[in-house]
Amino acid sequence: MGKNIADDPVYSQPKDRTESSPDRSQDIADDPTYNQPKKGNSGNDHGSVPQSPRKQDGKGEVTEDPTYNQPNATQSQSQSQQGIADDPTYNQPGTNGSSNQSSSQQPPIKQDGKGDVTEDPTYNQPGATQSQSGSSRKSPPIADDPTYNQPGTNGSNSEHSSQQPPIKQDGKGEVTEDPTYNQPGATQSQSSSQPRASERLSQLNNQIAPSPTGSDTISPANTSKPRQQKRKKNQDYQTLLPADYSDIMGHIRTMQDMAQNPPADHRGYTRQKAGGKMTSRERIAALLNPGSFREVGSVTGTTKWALDPENPLSERVEDFIPSNNPQGFGSVTCLRTGATRVNKQVYLTSDDFAIRAGHADGAVGPKTLYGEKLALRLKVPVVKLVDGSSGGGSVSTIATTGFSYLPHVTIMGTVVKQLNQGIPNMGAVVGPAIGLGFARVVATHFSVMAADIGSAFNAGPKVVEGATFEEGLSFQDLGGPYVHCCNGTIDNMARDERECYEQIRTVLGYLPNCGALEPPPCLEAWWSGDDVLREDVSLRSIISRKNNRMYDPYRIIESVVDKGSWFEIGRLWGKTAIGGLARLGGKPVAILSNNCEVNSGALDTAGSQKLIKMIKFADIFNLPIVQFVDVPGYAIGTVAERSAVMKWGVELGKAYYTSTTPIFTVLTRRAYGVAGGIMLDSREPWMRIAWPSSNWGSLPLEGGIEVGHRFELKTIREQAEKEKPGSGEEAWKKKYKELNEMYTRLLNPVRTANVFNVEEIVDPKDTRKICCRWTKEMYGLPMKERLADRASGKIVPVFS
């Protein structure tokens, strides 16, 4: 009985071994990979038949094929019936051939209802029959296996029949090769299969261990070596690429280095330095805390690639023009907050005028829009350093794209959401801000312009010259700081770039990251070393008893707020009003005041516009407002009427009555007319105090007495003239004096306090501690309630 057969997991070629019988047939194995035949020699003269695919395992033993799962069939004359295993993969049954047996295991067959045997429609295997001795019955036809191309098996009368390798009939009764596995057809004749099997075996042996020169070898007719060589060549190029992707990272480092270290002879950067301006990345370093910048889109730009001559799959960076608007995250620190140091994370965009004068380069627009949306989602303040058009279009853009386009400002919708949600938007003009760049810096909560290099305009001097015939205009003439910092387009002016960045850091120190969700950042009451109970006796006499005398309103503001905390916004425009930021007991507040030194404090158009912006600014950032009121009314005269003073006065009233942030009023002197009523009466309950110097009413006494007593004064003048010619004027003045003295006594603020029309008249020296106490109260439960109302949508502040 034969030995057990081991499985070969590589080629899985089965082989018959019958050690007990000296009369053993030759074993021939087909090579299913290279289609190489192999011959196995035995010690007898019996004929051999082709065997199913198998392979020697190097030790002389033949193993089974687990891939094609062809069963090992043994033929022994002395063994009566040896079991063959079924093929579980292709469902090919093992055949059990014996010279003494009349029955054998059949593959799947089916009867067609007429007694004939038909093919198996599932596996397409024909029925196979074997006879005991010289079959008197013809075997059924052999059908091809269309799925795996396994031919049907036809049992022979020979005693040494065995399972055949894959074969296929060509329709004419001849056996052809297997086109799927490239297995040659095998004949049923033992004598004809012997030479061909020997040739295959010799070829396979030559491939495994080349034979000496002169050996009988036959070159294989069908081989996949050329295909293998091609695949190996591609694989070689692939393997030349670093496994750790260091080539890709090298490209990124090269581009980043080119962007951060431009060549010294670059025309744009040479022009930038000659104009006294910082480069874009120098500005980023000047504004942000050292080492805090994390760039977004660091390799955005235009790259010129060069092919690697040694590897067609590789390339290198030959040249790189970075995007002219580097952007990213960083942190800033407000230096005015002392040892506490309020730090803010911001999203920063910085124009690079050295590259295409800041015009669109194909990457600025999408990257800027992405940055604005990212800041909106993360509730991070945005800082815009504008020097150019901030990605605006130019005529050359048409030549690059090959077509013109309808103008669009996609970014504006996102910016408006930021403004109304109270996400701080800061802008600085540090060069010529043109078109879209100008619009971006104006669409902010706070803007500043560098006096030495800043300018802003809708179109440059050349375009203006062609449209309005204004020739010889410089950037400063057309839109310098003394144009836009004095008309309210830009809030503040700074000496140079560095002061611009200092002002931006200062403003951010007073503001929350998102007014819709947070209160402003508070410091300890002792942060500046200024006692909240501090008194200033000099305030008692700062306002003269003569109403026509002026005083310095800034002295009052700086005396009341924490030392070193006052920061004014918009000093060069709307000068009849004062606005800014400060702290009271460490807590941020917005400060409003009338300026009696300009137009006697009467609000003009620009003054109203300034107060409107400050009220909305405070409302959107949850800043309580402390205002110092001394308003004789709205400005009068032809200039005032032509500049629509009343229109903007009403707009100021809308701002007061639509805002919801708390307001505390310190009435220092006058409150007259519509302007006085709007500033004092917009909150319920009123929260206000009055100084002893206060007086109020519908009209100031100067001019009011004449209006109110015109007929009476006229009658006295006429009657005196009748009685004594020339005495009418003296009688008029006498009566006017009497009326003025009477009204002066009646204007005593205590009389108003008697009827509780003013809550309290206080000593001016106590103003600071009163304001600090009120501010502390507003940052308690009222602030929590306000934030809850904003979150629920009960109140919706609007800045734009």
From TrEMBL:
Segments of skewed composition (Polar residues): 33-53, 66-83, 121-138, 147-166, 179-226
Pfam families reported in the protein's UniProt record: Carboxyl_trans (PF01039)
Basic and acidic residues biased stretches: 14-27
PROSITE patterns for the chain: COA_CT_CTER
Compositionally skewed regions (Low complexity) per UniProt: 91-108
Domain of life, per lineage: Eukaryota
Region span, Disordered: 1-240, 259-278
Domain CoA carboxyltransferase C-terminal as annotated: residue spans: 534-785
SUPFAM superfamilies associated with the record: ClpP/crotonase
Name of protein: CoA carboxyltransferase C-terminal domain-containing protein
Species of the source: Lithohypha guttulata
Source species taxonomy: Eukaryota, Fungi, Dikarya, Ascomycota, Pezizomycotina
